[in-house]
Design goal:
With 206 residues, the chain is α/β, with parallel strands linked by helices. Helices cover 50% and strands 14% of the residues. The protein contains nine helices and five strands.
Length: 206
């Protein structure tokens, strides 16, 4: 319940982002999805696979930023450390948390298409934007307001120290919530649940 309340408090705030630390299976993702549903936020998670690289990640990032910045959709982006297949992933997320934009993400036709979509969205809200700079400023403001990033990490992982030093926005822009490790009682209950239906033979013969 304590973790639910902490996550809820952060996701209710503009630019509210979380860094959830704890062992695998501690409930970080499940609770994030539950609290997001409570607050009417849609869930976004990347679907990493063997051929998933920086370009695919950037395309996913462009898509989710359009949804929050142009369409006004409110989204929780749950980003697990197992999906960090390249250092470029964290660099992009670090920039996004720090400024609401990722340098070089929208260029050429993508940039022009984005500005046109943002102008149409602003016009529907009765807002007239004259310059490209005003359109871009409105876009980044809406991204910061409508997108909530939840990082889920296992501090026992080998890259924890490196990531914490190379991506300062993870700590500067995120509220850290420590889930800790599994208690002996919880571990015992899991073992009991998985073995209670198994035929282990005569206990006295063991």
């Amino acid at each position: 319940l304590d973790h639910i309340l902490r996550i809820d408090r952060v996701l209710r705030q503009p630019m509210g982002h979380l860094l959830l630390c704890g062992d695998s299976g501690a409930g970080k993702t499940v609770l994030s999805r539950f609290v997001s549903w409570m607050n009417g936020l849609n869930i976004f998670q990347i679907k990493a696979h063997s051929r998933y690289g920086v370009e695919e990640f950037f395309e996913d990032l462009r898509g989710v930023m359009r949804r929050v910045g142009c369409e006004g959709e409110r989204i929780t982006f749950i980003f697990d450390e197992s999906n960090v297949l390249s250092s470029g992933f964290l660099e992009a997320m670090n920039a996004l948390l720090a400024s609401g934009e990722v340098p070089g993400l929208f260029e050429g036709d993508d940039y022009n298409s984005l500005l046109n979509s943002c102008r149409d969205s602003a016009a529907r809200d009765g807002i007239i934007l004259d310059s490209d700079e005003e359109v871009w400023r409105r876009f980044t403001t809406l991204v910061q307001r409508n997108l909530h990033v939840v990082f889920t990490v296992n501090p026992s992982g080998g890259d924890w120290k490196n990531r914490s030093t190379t991506s300062p926005a993870l700590f500067n822009r995120c509220v850290v919530d420590w889930f800790g490790s599994w208690s002996p009682k919880a571990l015992g209950e899991v073992g009991k649940e998985f073995t209670m239906k198994l035929d282990l033979g005569d206990a006295e013969a063991v």
